[in-house]
Amino acid sequence: MVQESLIMVVTRFAPSPTGELHVGGARTALYSYLYARHSNGKFILRIEDTDLERSKQEYVDNILRSIDWLGLEYDEIHYQSKRLDIYNDYAKKLMDSGRAYKRVDADKGECIVFKIDRDYIYWDDAVHERIGRDISKDPDLVIVKSDGYPTYNFACVVDDTLMGITHVVRGNDHISNTPKQISLIRALGGACPIYGHIPLILNPDMSKMSKREETSLETATLKYRDEGYLPEALINFLALLGWSPGGDLEIMDKETLIKLFTLERVNKKSAVFDLAKLKWLNGSYIRKKSLDDLTLECRAMLLTRFNKLSVNDAILKELVRQNQERMKTLRDFVDQTKFFFTDDVEYNSEAVKAYILPDQSRQILLEIIDSFNSMNDFSKDSISAILKDITSKKGLKFVQVAQPLRVAATGNTISPPIDETISILGKEKTLQRIKKALSIANK
RNA sequence: GCCCCCAUCGUCUAGCGGUCCAGGACACGGGCUUUUCAAGCCCGCGACACGGGUUCGAGUCCCGUUGGGGGCACCA
After folding, report:
1. Gap between the Cα atoms of A404 and A56, Å rounded
2. What does the pLDDT read at residue A339?
């Protein structure tokens, strides 16, 4: 233990740019990152773009943006496509030492093949215990494709060795590659990193999440940003999906995660992605955010929906204040304030039936129009006073007055306290909407 | 088919042989609060897959069964 701490930990995240960064990949990146930071080590990002057919620049961009959004700062970034000379070099060395040979295929052309160890290979996994497999009957391994590019197993091993990777954190689905890679490392004379194979993330129906089934779950990391999730919430959630600090602690910021994270505490069992829990966590982070910060986020989200925004800061801030504890995602904010930003309110038919149509409701609304008309100060408190006045004069409960008004003003039965809601809407618009609601009721 | 991995409430998990008639969180049900909805607080529901061992004692160790997942490319 003491000696271990003298060696600098180096981890890496090695995605291939053949698709958007998957949340499962994001979690792998997170675990690698957390472990490196926890150990005061280095975190390397390595783009494994050796598949000419499938690699795309847009995916590289997507991966970089995802990593950046999550706040996983890396110390180095490498592109395998820029290291071709290195792989060729090592392939030659393996041929010189007799461990690799050329093979010609009639259709595909010439490639280089590595003679794997005819042996039982094992390693002590950081997440599991000892894992091993007899690869003596496995076929030899192609290390350089006929297009001159290295195969995954080869480039990965060369880079892990050259970059001094001490801990490889990767998905469970790589377990079967590991013996071959170890065999390659031996032949190259490198030192084996410690492998930590983390469990996969599953859909609610237990299928592998990266196999896009007809689930409604989004798999692209950036989609969660677009849906209004906060990176700190996603990180916290992903961290908990397969790891726990050991106690009852659940809400942890990045610093805390770094402090507590160890590979030894990563679970072996695959975990189901539970959107409800993510939502809860996100809501919890939203509630904790400062009003100013949250307002910034909400403004950005609003701008994805509306091309231009004509609200002043004070009003927007007040809207955010009213909704802060009511939203689970930033997108919820857009939905919840739709009545404010659009002039043609969509009246929910159920709501209208229940709170506008009844005679009593209409009388109340008429009365409210009367009272509001003579108001100069349309503040929350004045509104509240007038509404309470009407309530007691009519011998009603406050809800019986508030709900018709709420439906008239917002189109729905749900909103922040009604006095605040219409105060920010303004007297003119409020009156207009009450009249509009009444006209609908008269049809 | 062959090989590998895994197995505690619906879900995420705590548990590393006795302190567990199994703890927490989300979800769900109920209540309080209340100007609707949230938020908050309280209560409830709810699990050690099964069968053998080992042991004075097993959720915890071993074996098997079953179940789930993953891998078997000149893809990563």
Report:
1. 55
2. 96
Active site residue A211: yes
Distance of A199 CA from B46 C1′ (whole Å): 26
A153 and A177 Cβ atoms separated by less than 8 Å = yes
Helices (H) and strands (E) in chain A, counts: 19, 12
**Cα dist from A119 to A132, A277, A404, whole Å:** 10, 45, 78
Answer CATH for A4-77+201-283 from 3.20.20.150, 3.40.50.620, 3.40.50.300, 2.120.10.80 = 3.40.50.620
Tell me the ipTM for this assembly: 0.96
Here the contacts of A325-328 (C-beta below 8 Å, separation 24 or greater) are A325/A287, A326/A416, A327/A283, A327/A286, A328/A279, A328/A280, A328/A282, A328/A283, A328/A286
Q: What helix, strand, coil percent values describe chain A, rounded to 5?
A: 50, 15, 35
Rounded mean pLDDT of A178-190?
97
In CATH, which of 3.40.190.10, 3.40.50.620, 3.40.30.10, 3.50.50.60 is domain A83-198? 3.40.50.620
Q: Do domains A4-77+201-283 and A290-339 have the same CATH topology?
A: no
The active-site residue out of A82, A92, A211, A277 is: A211
Q: Are A29 and A70 in contact (CB under 8 A)?
A: yes
In tens, the pLDDT along A100-131 reads 999 999 999 999 999 999 999 999 999 999 99
Neighbouring-strand partners of residue A100: A114
Pick the CATH number of A290-339 from 1.20.272, 1.10.8, 3.30.390, 1.10.287: 1.10.8
Q: Which of residues 271-300 of A touch strand B (CB under 7 A)?
A: 271-272, 274, 276-277, 279-280, 283-284, 287
User: Could you report the per-residue pLDDT of A308-344, keeping only the tens digit for each?
Assistant: 888 999 999 999 999 999 999 999 999 999 999 998 8
Residues near A393 by Cβ (< 8 Å), separated by ≥ 6?
none
Distance A16 CA to B26 C1' (A): 33
For residue range A208-225, what is the model confidence (pLDDT) as tens digits? 777 655 556 889 999 999
